[in-house]
Specification:
This protein has 15 helices and twelve strands. The longest helix is centred in the last third of the chain and has 20 residues, at 257-276. It starts with 7 loop residues before the first helix and ends in a 7-residue tail after the last helix. It has two domains: 7-255, Type I PLP-dependent aspartate aminotransferase-like (Major domain) (Aspartate Aminotransferase, domain 2), CATH 3.40.640; 258-394, Aspartate Aminotransferase, domain 1, CATH 3.90.1150. With 396 residues, it is an alpha/beta fold.
Length: 396
């Protein structure tokens, strides 16, 4: 099918689908490790890249290929490289495109494990990383060096939903000879398409909304074929590979992605609005609220505010900020206490002691992650039931 002829909702259901001679209507699951060749010449041609086709499921598998093709169609990318997790997608991107001695500029408002990857592991292998404010475009320009290869951002950010100006950051990156990488996990291509705004590469943790039900781990890197070639080369050699079973689950998740993202965003908007009116809430962070500092920008580059809401809890007399936040979390009965997000089930977590617990206190403070902060990934339950579960916030 010609992807340009169809809307994104149709692409979610139809793009990337291939059938075997059996004519199945739902994508087939190929669990085998290797594939047979007709003869030695075909084997040589496959390995040499002169004939397309499957070789070994570490780097060629029909089910994984269908997932890659569908997600690429949704993001408007030439190629997708599927990986074993969201973190392995970031690793494959950096290892494929950077070398020892190169420099990366990264937002300080990113997932805690991403901070660890950049500031500890990659630095040990000779990569230099500078962290700057996501929202200060001039800070990115000032941080760039002659050896800067990548700008790396999450927008909206985790957990404060800060919004980066993708078009402006892309202009700065390109002016200094760097590529802009956007982690689009919070929005998915249903809500935001970074490549259309000037980004060069998109990263996904498929574990989140792409799956949508908390079942499997996976990740993806998307961009032009030229940029994906070294990323794919790293995956082929290092084996940070998405399993065929997980790809099959993600294919089913993509079919309903547009319906689910609209529902997540609708619930999140309603819950965020309610939270702003609660006496025990000091501040709410949600791009769909007029009170969000980058609300206008978010509404220009996103179709909605997406599904993540964070808020700061007021401490009562004798309470520390952490105790106040934990009291809210521990009082819930319906919402799942877990750090995962993107699930049909709403989840709640305390970022300072979970997702960002390995980040130094100084770095957390610089990123605005306070001890009073609670993050909710709003699911698909009725929003009135979520409000009831957070009733402790209504108590003056």
């Amino acid at each position: 099918m010609n992807n340009q002829d169809y809307q994104i909702e149709t692409l979610s259901v139809r793009a990337g689908t291939e059938t075997t001679p059996y004519g199945e209507n739902s994508e087939a699951l190929f669990l085998n490790s290797s594939f047979r060749f007709k003869n030695a010449a075909q084997a040589a041609a496959r390995f040499g890249g002169t004939e397309p086709g499957n070789i070994y499921s570490r780097f060629t598998n029909p089910t994984v290929s269908m997932f890659q093709d569908k997600l690429a169609a949704l993001e408007g990318a030439e190629q997708c490289v599927a990986t074993s997790s969201g973190m392995s997608a970031i690793l494959a991107c950096v290892m494929g495109l950077c070398s020892a001695g190169d420099h990366i500029v990264a937002s300080r408002s990113i997932f805690g494990t991403s901070v660890q990857l950049f500031s500890n592991i990659l630095k040990r292998w000779g990569l230099d990383v500078t962290f700057v404010s996501l929202t200060d475009v001039e800070a990115w320009r000032s941080a760039a060096l002659p050896n800067t290869k990548l700008f790396f951002v999450e927008t909206p950010s985790n957990p404060l939903t800060d919004i980066g100006d993708i078009a402006a950051l892309a202009d700065v990156a390109h002016a200094v000879g760097a590529k802009l990488v956007v982690d689009n996990c919070f929005c998915t291509p249903i809500i935001q398409r970074p490549l259309e705004l000037g980004a060069d590469i998109v990263i996904h943790s498929a574990t989140k909304y792409i799956d949508g039900q908390g079942r499997c781990l996976g990740g993806a890197v998307l961009g032009t074929k030229a940029l994906m070639e070294p990323v794919y080369g790293f995956l082929r050699t290092a084996g940070v590979t998405m399993s065929a079973f997980n790809a099959w689950v993600f294919l089913k998740g993509l079919e309903t992605l547009h319906v689910r993202m609209e529902a997540h965003a609708r619930n999140a908007q309603a819950l965020a609005t309610w939270l702003e009116a609660q006496p025990q809430v000091a501040r709410v962070y949600y791009p769909g609220l007029a009170s969000h500092p980058q609300h206008a920008l978010a509404m220009r580059q996103q179709r909605s505010g997406a599904g993540i809401v964070s808020f700061e809890v007021k401490a009562k007399a004798g309470q520390s900020e952490q105790e106040a936040a934990w009291a809210v979390i521990d009082a819930t009965e319906l919402i799942s206490i877990t750090a995962n997000l993107g699930d049909a089930k709403s989840t709640i977590t305390h970022p300072a002691t979970t997702t960002h617990s390995r980040v130094s206190a100084e770095a957390r403070a610089a990123a605005g992650v306070k001890d009073s902060l609670v993050r909710i990934a709003v699911g698909l339950e009725h929003v009135d039931d979520l409000k009831k579960d957070l009733a402790i916030l209504s108590q003056a």
